[in-house]
Amino acid sequence: MEMDTPATDDLEWLEADLDLHEDYLDEDLEPPLPEEEEESFIEQVYKHPHSETSIKPDNHTIGSETEILQPKKRLLNPSLPDPSNVEYTVEEKRCKVDFCVNEADDDWMRYSSPEEEPVLVVEEEERFISRYATDIEGDIMPVTAPDGDRVYAKLIEEKDDKLKKLEVKGSSKGLTSEPISVLMQKMEQAELQKALEASVASQIDEDLPERPTMSERLWVDKYSPNSFVELLSDEHTNREVLMWLKQWDTSVFGSELKSTTDDVLSALKRHSSISQHKRVSSKTIFGRNTESVSNSETFGERNRFDKEKYDSHGMKELHNKKSKDLGPPEQKILLLCGAPGLGKTTLAHVAAKHCGYRVVEINASDDRSSSTIETKILDVVQMNSVIADSRPKCLVIDEIDGALGDGKGAVDVIIKMVSADNKSDTRTENIIQSEQSGKTSSKKRKDTPLLRPVICICNDLYAPALRPLRNVAKVHVFVQPTVNRIVNRLKYICNKEGMRTSSVALTALAEYTECDIRACLNTLQFLNKKKEMLNVMDISSQVIGRKDTSKSVFDIWKEIFQKRKLKGVRKSIDSCRSTVNEFTSLHSLISNCGNYDLILDGIHENMLQLSYHDPVLKKTVKCLHSLEVSDIFNQYIMRTQKMSLQGYQPAIAISIHGVVSQVEKPNIQWPKSFHRYRTSLVDKVEALHTWHNKISPCISRHISTKSFVEDLVSPLLHILSPPTLRPVALHLLSEKEKNEMAQLVSTMVSYAITYKNKKVDSLPGKLRNEALTDTQVLSFDPPIGDFVNFEGYRSNYFILALAVKQVLSHEVEKQKILQTSIGKSKDENERIYLSGKEKSSKPERALENTKSISSLKNSSTSNRSETVSANTIVSASASSRSATSSSEILKSSEATKKRSSGPFNFFERVLQMQLKDQFACTSSECDNWISASFDGMGKQLVRMEQKMSQMTKREALNSLSCPDRFASRAPEGKNRKSYKSQSRYAFSNLSFRGFVFFYCKVRRLLTPRTLTMSVAPVFSLRGYSIRTLC
Amino acid sequence: MLWVDKYRPKTLDKVLVHEDVAQNLKKLVTEQDCPHLLFYGPPGSGKKTLIMALLRQMFGASAEKVKVENKNWKVDAGSRTIDLELTTLSSTHHVELNPSDAGYQDRYIVQEIIKEMAKNRPIDTKGKKGFKVLVLNEVDKLSREAQHSLRRTMEKYSASCRLILCCDSSSKVTEAVRSRCLNIRINAPKENEIVKVLEFIGKKEGLQLPSGFAARIAEKSARSLRRAILSFETCRVQQYPFTSNQVISPMDWEEYVSEIASDIMREQSPKRLFQVRGKLYELLVNCIPPEIILKRLLYELLKKLDSELKHEVCHWAAYYEHRMRLGQKAIFHIEAFVAKFMSIYKGFLIATFG
């Protein structure tokens, strides 16, 4: 696979490239000349401005090495299976550069033979280029440089079949031709290189004959790893990804583990061992040609040995795993995330290719709306291509976090598929297989399971769009590869491209770009093209574009809290400069993020967890001072809207960095506490406001939020839960206690506080009270207790027993109802004139009702006795009715004494009923009463009418209070209508005043409309208009 | 009802503290007209009580019949309309509201409501006051813009509307507004005045007060009458008959602050500071104003502090409170104060004891 694909690719590419060269003539380069005869070799005409033979004008000032179009060489060596490998080795040997040998060992071995025949450079003294065609003998070809210079290049036909090397002169550079600074630099670099890598003969051969031609192709693409072992990313990650892909094998290929696994494992093993033995191997391998063979052989042997050991172990492991789950892996989606330029996409591609998949990539440039992507994914995941190559496909969704709206579509589709998959998890492997083969577009169910590996790639793992994906996917976070690896790779590429660099400079570059190999390569290519040297000293000032990175806030916090380690040697010299660098880098980092508020919150949150040395808290004070400043600053900016001042905010964070930064890695938390504080404060204020609005205005107007928490809440809690209140039944309380109780209830009512059932939560304050059962916890309804419920603090207010709370809540409810009714009747009183006595008696009685049963009894008794003494027929009839219905055998025509007891009993019962709210149990009884009384009433009406004129006002009223009560029950009874008609009948015979009183009482039970309807005819009869009433 | 409300004087004549102010107000009102008024003084001194009594004096008993309303305003502010909602208390004669609840849009509220009142001016002014009264609470929390807008409207609509402003500190009210009002300072009642009130209540409730008991409550109340009466009632609930050395239960948050203070005194380290931060958050979450926390914390710290440090600590407390008012995130500033205190105290301890 590796053998043919790159070669064909290269060929294709070469063709394209040649065309390109026509257009992109560089002043520094001579374009390759296309040959007419296909067999003939293309000569790379090159020139060196400093060489004597150069005919080119002097405007090519920048010295460059001799160059050869590298691909041509491949063409020249068609017999070689993998020309690139040969090239590599050749160059490696020549340059004696230590680089990481990524090629497979076997390949290396195999290809080492051609390299034995040294590729000789054929020096030609002839002129190849001239301004004048006459200067050149043989075939010529005109070449025009961009600046208009026209030269003629000679076309040479190589005689040598085997080695077709093109040579140019100018290889040797005279010392004089270079500026002294360059020389100095070179020396310095050389020395540093020596010091750093003892094994490397650092000097770059001055007369290196082969120079890969600068091509238009990006180095990034050109040198992107083609095989798994070339990958730069973290080995562990690579391995994991590969393993994951391998787990699909059974379901995708339907076979047991493919044999490639051995290769992979061995490659992996070797890969790691190479990095370990890099030093050794590189030294030996590149020492001498002859030696290299044997060395590499031994090396290979060692690897094989290792491999065998590893394999047996690894395979066993794998097989074990396989036997456990034969289907696709647990997590069907792989999510790779990491900073740009770490090689995520490359890894995905390489790994997929390695495992025998055809990679289908969907990236940000594609249409990613939900509908289109679904079909696309389905295509990829379920169908096999008939035409091109029948390898199963592997879907790579690149930059999935990129566009929020679009990316989400993709994520949704994938999630849907995964969830569908999980549902059908029970299917056996066979079924899946058969399904997979039989799966066609016709089977377009909505929830088609995922049958092919899907790799998603993102930069920001915590992008909101990815949230659902994170849960179902196997996530791999890419870490930066070590600078060494990057540098080695860069150096290798530089050497290949013939660019002169030093490892120091490359290290600096790698550090500068944060191991973003793409950025490194692009920079290098750019510099190479400009024929500039990569300068260590002014990397930042050089053309190298710094990425406009916006890192996550976590990284920023880390940067702030963590001191960068300085290289020991350079520390003293660079300390000044490094602080400057640190400042600028931090500054740009923070200002790129822009969310200063969050950054400072995070600093505040994590600052005290750091372990900086601070005996008298000077540093802490300083930091907090800075935080304060930023807060004040922020407030000022917000108030005055002078946003330009925001530019100074990063400086504050940097000053904190200066104080507290440590070498050790900080453990950074997201700043939750401040936000939690904010939200819960809002909640509390809200609760307070609603409570405040519930309190009657004459009290609430005196309380502000501030005074509530400051002054009121603690005493209120004490007052509301008096320890003196005994948890006994209401009637067992002494008179004094009853008074206290009444007062407490009125306080609670006036402050709109009651007890409510609350779900049991293990509040420490609640646990204290042993009397509480788990099922019922009554707590204050506006949870005022929470306002003193500080963490780690227990207020010492007494907590009432559950029984008392229940009684209290009951009382409070009652009181509330009564208050509203009093309020209503009062309103009525004001509107309609009633006699003073009535007016006073009603609220009075209502109040009495509420206070206690006994007092109420008394009052009603007194009322009754008055009624009885008046000896009206109505009251007598009422008494009789009540007596019979309550199955107390009392006859209506009894003595006055008995009669007096009748109403008494009756009213007492009714009142008790009302007080105890025993509606449910007595409703049927009540109904009986009511109907009976109305029946009786009808008969009595005539007589009542007669007597009415004789009755005093109050007597009439009192007599009416009986039907009144019944009617007040009526709406809750069953046959409401009949009651209404009956009551209407009754009303028609009542005096106006009596009705009014009735109206007051009933009003809250009947809607005004029904009442008016039922009453209107009566009043029109009687000559009253409703208007006078309302 | 709590005693605070039960024994709140309804009329100017019944006022027990600030009698002189009450009399002056009475005189002011009886002459048919009154200027704009600005009441200021510490909390719990009786500003609101006086204002209510004054309203009653002006309009009679009907001023006490108030209803709560959630009013909505649509304010046309140039290109957009702003919807505002605010709870108001109103009677036929006056409107009472808390404009600072509207946040930064408070100025619209102030203008709108005054205009509205001017529009609905009672036609028949016979035998009645020709104006309505607008009571604005917490004027010191009004934004500067609102106060500026207030001063124009105050003059423009003065024929139909009187303002009674109420705030804790007049320093936050702009000069312009202050000069348009009659400023009435309501002092915190003196301790003997508080004792007088407590004894009055005790007599009304028929309680036996041991000698010096009322004085103790008054002393603990930090000269806030409200607090004094509330803790008096608390004592009554907890234990009656009173004993002269009865525990007067403190405010819970003050207890908590003193816990924090003792935490600080015990150990000075970033770790401890972190714990303290958690506790401070607890207080802040429960709506306790940061200024009060800081003040109380200083008070608690000073209790246990060596006298030579007191000056410095006070200085820094003032410094940080100032900064707190400039800033927004109170926790930063309180914490900075705690850190500063820790630093000073630790330095002092090291210097003294080595």
From TrEMBL, chain A:
Q: Name one GO molecular function term.
A: DNA binding
Q: Does the keyword Mitochondrion apply?
A: no
One Gene Ontology cellular component = nucleus
| A Pfam family that the UniProt record links to this protein | AAA
Q: Where is this region: Disordered?
A: 426-445, 833-876
Gene3D superfamilies under this entry?
Answer: 1.10.8.60, P-loop containing nucleotide triphosphate hydrolases
Compositionally biased region (Polar residues)? 429-440
> What biological processes does GO assign it?
DNA replication
Record keyword DNA-binding present: yes
Q: Which keywords has UniProt assigned to this entry?
A: ATP-binding, Cell cycle, DNA replication, DNA-binding, Nucleotide-binding, Nucleus
**Which intervals hold domain AAA+ ATPase?**
330-484
Q: Which compartments is it annotated to reside in?
A: Nucleus
| Oligomer status and interactors | Heterotetramer of subunits RFC2, RFC3, RFC4 and RFC5 that can form a complex with RFC1.
* Record-stated family: Belongs to the activator 1 small subunits family. CTF18 subfamily.
| Record's protein name | Chromosome transmission fidelity protein 18 homolog
Q: Which organism is it from?
A: Mikania micrantha (bitter vine)
From TrEMBL, chain B:
Q: Which Pfam families match?
A: DNA_pol3_delta2 (PF13177), RCF1-5-like_lid (PF21960), RFC_C (PF22534)
Q: Which GO terms describe its cellular component?
A: DNA replication factor C complex; nucleus
Q: Which UniProt keywords apply?
A: ATP-binding, DNA replication, Nucleotide-binding, Nucleus
State where it is primarily located: nucleus
List, in alphabetical order, the GO biological process terms annotated in this UniProt record.
Answer: DNA repair; DNA strand elongation involved in DNA replication
* Compartments, record wording: Nucleus
Output this protein's name: AAA+ ATPase domain-containing protein
